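thought: fold this chain, then report.
action: predict
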Amino acid sequence: MGGVAALARERGDAVEGSDQNVYPPMSTQLEALGIALRQGYLPEHIGADVDQVVVGNALSRGNPAVEALLDSGRPYTSGAQWLAEQVLPGRRVLAVAGTHGKTTTSSLLAWILEHAGRSPGFLIGGVPQNFPVSARLGAGDCFVVEADEYDTAFFDKRSKFVHYRPEVAILNNLEYDHADIFPDLAAIQRQFHHLVRTVPRKGRLVVNAEDAALEAVLAMGAWTPVERFAIDREADWTARLAEPSGARFEVLHKGRPLGEVTWPLFGRHNVMNALAAVAAAAAVGVDPMAALAALPGFGSARRRLEKLAERDGIVVYDDFAHHPTAITTTLEGLRATPGGRVLAVLEPRSNSMRLGAHSAALGPALRSADAVFLLRRPELPWDAEAVLEGHAGPGAVAASVDALLEAVQAEVRRGDRVVFMSNGGFEAAPQRFARWLQER
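observation:
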């Protein structure tokens, strides 16, 4: 929704908004754009001179602002529908869907197009380091959109990505998530197939060949040419890891070597993200060699294993973690790089995590960490202590961020890599720890 606000501002609209617990980097981006932001969903925050209200999917019936909006009779729409009607017509839309890696892959794709001189527009769920904003209109014909499977709004329960009508769609991966709105994996697969149904036959589906759940989606029907990418099996686009960390790899197209890439990211999952982005860019005419040339200059996105501080051999990272698989791949990628111990500091914050949908998988997901620290807020309905059972290294479960930070500070030593993982603000725990490290 912050990105939607940025696009509306760039179009020349006067924009203001309300939200709960806004935190950087989005809060600072909105301030820099001159977008007035009010704290809390209150009816009085919707000014009398507002022409249209764009409603995010965090709001439900019963919310005072929603009820006042409906009673007023004034026009309203969803963020996804506003984008589809006001920005996407006439553009070549490239949509990036998947349980994991949407923000990184969308940022990669936008950067490849930018590097190739295509000046793309984009709407990304984080702030890419290669661009000063998370969204822009762009001067070129392409528009990259991070295509989320979460529902659209209280009045539109379809997945947001069905609004975008892409010419090219990346299907990056698919696992069970969003336990608050989807009963099982099959329900999410059905939504992904709704997206597949909107891609024209002149377009392209770029699909992870290693993901059986996506193959099941395609088996429901596909009317668009499909190109697959993989590392461990045959596909149209493949990679050979020259280093276990994924910091150096070779890219092949239909078995023909295109070149080797050395870049600042690591982890097998990021190599897969790169393959998807290169394939999608090629589908709109970018030379794959030019795409590979862009990768060494890629800066990922804020809060995607973002390095915050380094002192006394200790490195602090901030990572947007919301699912056990994302936690596993991040920690395994970090483990594959040279360095000391890995300390994982986790806030189970996503709706699925809070509900306990992933509680059994969290322990195995954290096995690559040498020490584990878990925030157990009072409202957490499942046994957080069980996550640490069987973990050989040190760790702690704390009921507050202050207590959690004290536990990490008591354990950390020279050479450690400390990774804070949360899909929320985490009460600024990563930044507070980084300041403590710099000042101690």
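thought: worth noting. The longest strand covers residues 256-262.
final: tokens above.
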